[in-house]
Amino acid sequence: MARQTFDIAVVGAGATGIAAAIAFARDGFRTVLVGRPETGADGRTVALMNGSVVFLDALGLWPAIAPHAAALETLRIVDDTGSLFRPPPLAFGAAEIGLDAFGWNVENARLVAELAEGVRGQAGLCLVETSASRMETMEQGAILHLQDGSAIETDLVVAADGRRSGLREAAGIVARTWAYPQSALTTILDHDRDHRETSTEFHTRHGPFTLVPLPGRRSSLVWVTSPQDAQRLAELDDAALALAIERQAKSMLGRMRVASPRGIVPMSGLSVTRFWAPHLALIGEAGHVFPPIGAQGLNLGFRDAAALRDVVVDARRQGRPVGGDDSLRVYQRGRDFDVRLRTAAVDGLNRALLADLVPADFLRGAGLLTLGMVGPLRRFLMREGVLPRIGAPRLMRKPAMLS
Asked: pLDDT digits over 263-283, tens only?
């Protein structure tokens, strides 16, 4: 059996795993990325918040992605629940917190394709396009056995292998999962009017209906509704679906045309009891899963990757094993609050929309109205939505703040 030795092995070649592997390699760690990048178009996009863009720029990846992304300069919320306590539309402007944009929206397939190109050009990074079969832990490291019969000896294995992570399960890390009575219909649209770099989220009784800018007169759609309605919409022909979307959007972008495949994403969540085991760290959807609300999922995964990068760099500087328990406990402490806070916030928002109760409507309406009127509170929440101010990974801070 062939066996190679690396400092760090990243399992999973989605966006989070690729970014983590490149980050480790750029810091001089002998790194292997195990997995096959999936770059097929599926009608889904990702809104990269400012901190994620700073991270990708620090890795030298953003210049190739930027031409395919659209700025999110304004975030607009419209209450379309029919509630008695419906507040007026609320707009958040990036300029109010000193940013050109909250983030940038890009097609998921394009993002992964550009990141995969970055792998091929990165010194010190080896791509092995197979999957992991099992992990064997030793006192001083781990052996990762691959499906092709080879093996990798490493100090740290990074599980970026998704919500059904085999590495997480084999390590005995308990995951709690839950489902919502919703599915999200996703696609990409052409439209007659300019979106003006504004992302608009209609809050409905079945969940958010969100249109997010793409370059030109194009936007991506995430329409959260009941599973039955999502399936019915997905089965419409292009013209009928475009008309249904236009009506739900109050014709704010004019006539629409479906411009990509459609997808249906069941709404679910996942949280774990801990983010590490001996010589193993969880990042991305191996450690947390969110509904597609508030652009938290991938941005949180990138924060996992950037935070773990800081931990292993500091461990090396201090002469400690990068995959040792002491290092991974530091990672646990750093990620625990951030992940659990975001999980609770997204879950609470979604359940508040589904709860057709007068008290819940009153509290949600009062909260939005308060945000519209109280500038310091609004700016604080905008900054936290872009990037937590406490404990932000070094590669996600503005260049002047890097250490």
From this structure: 998 989 999 999 999 999 999
> Does 238 fall in a domain?
no
- The span from the CA of 90 to the CA of 99, in Å, is 19
Q: What is the DSSP string of 326-370?
A: HHHHHHHHHHHHHHHHHHHHHHHHHHHHH---HHHHHHHHHHHHH
In whole angstroms, give the CA distance from residue 24 to residue 18: 10
Beta-bridged to residue 351, according to DSSP, are none
Please list, residue by residue across 133-158, b when 16 or more beta carbons sit within 10 angstroms of its beta carbon and e when fewer do: eebebeeebbbbbbeeeebbbbbbbb
Are 147 and 130 in contact by the 8 Å Cβ rule? The answer is yes
Domain of 139 in residue numbering reads as 3-177+268-398
Asked, for residue 49, whether it belongs to a domain, the answer is yes
Total number of domains in the chain: 1
Q: Would you state the pLDDT for residue 349? A: 74
What's the pTM? Answer: 0.90
How would you class 119 by CB atoms within 10 Å of its CB: exposed for 0-12, middle for 13-18, buried for 19 or more? buried
